[in-house]
Design brief:
about 350 residues, alpha+beta, four-stranded antiparallel sheet, 13 strands
Length: about 350
Amino acid sequence: HAFCFSLLVFLSLLLLVVFYLLYISIYLFFFFFFQAEDGIRDAQESRGLGDVYKRQAWRGIRAVARLPVRLNLQARSVHGGRISLSEEQVQAFNRDGFLRVPKFFTQPECANLLETIAIDPAISSQFMPMSDAEGRASKLTLWFHLGDDTYSAFARSQSLVAAAGRLIGDVEPYMFHSKVMLKEPRKGGAWEWHQDFGYWYNQGLELPDRCVSSILAVDEHTIANGCLQVLRSSHRLGRLDHGVYGGQAGVDPERLEAARARYDLVHCELDQGDMLFTHSNLLHASAPNTSQNWRRSLIIAYNGCDSNPIDPSNSIIPCFSQIQVLPDEQLEQFGAKPHSTTRADFLSLDANKDSFAQDPQS
């Protein structure tokens, strides 16, 4: 009897192991198959109504296949690097909606970035002039995917990827766009008060706590050259209604007035190499550059691996793609390398306007 009981227990455990391995195999098949199917579908034009029905059928299956990712069972944590955020810094970010980390990148690394901006034809040919309400303009060049260039090397750097993961809830991050922002001396325009999620919600994202912007000061950012202004803790308001003012999305003026009465105004002055992290619902703006100095920034936006756009076929925001992390010590050695001449994912001004659907109230 004891032998039979032991055999029964052994067979039961073996059966459980077999079922578990079968589940993992099925999950991996669906996960990689549908990621590949997404990539193929995105590269093809729609073939008409039949293709629409096919996408609707696949969408339900994909939701089931991706469930373990949404539960964060597949998430990869990035640790280490030259700079690691402390628990106090993470708490400060959650409390205030922003976090300044001094000397995140070194002067030689920033020098490489300045040289890249200076020699990169795309920065002067692919920019969008973002006009403010008074007609001044800042220049914005935005793209969606990592490449073999200096900007992407910064976005892949170990300390930055690890910090982004900490600030979005210890979830594996991916870069969903990067941009170079130029405010020319005495010409650079203001940015209206807005929330980044005012754009991103309309572009298909659902989870504001999974999104973070990392703003690298390539030059000194001062009050005179139009540094970022934020309303401390205003991310707690949630997403507010936005409209278009000048050529930019801005928050509803009545809501803004109430927020300014409630929350402290902070001017985020930065030294070269400092990093400013901002929550996607933080209200922020910047004044025009009235100084004789440039104000240049590299802004890298990260999203969580469990927060793909709700309808990837109708969103300019890409789905999760794992970052090949670059060790911090290799960043300076990467040097100055501009965008590839074959890069084709720059955001145009028309596409930017089309991607932002105005609310009926605006």
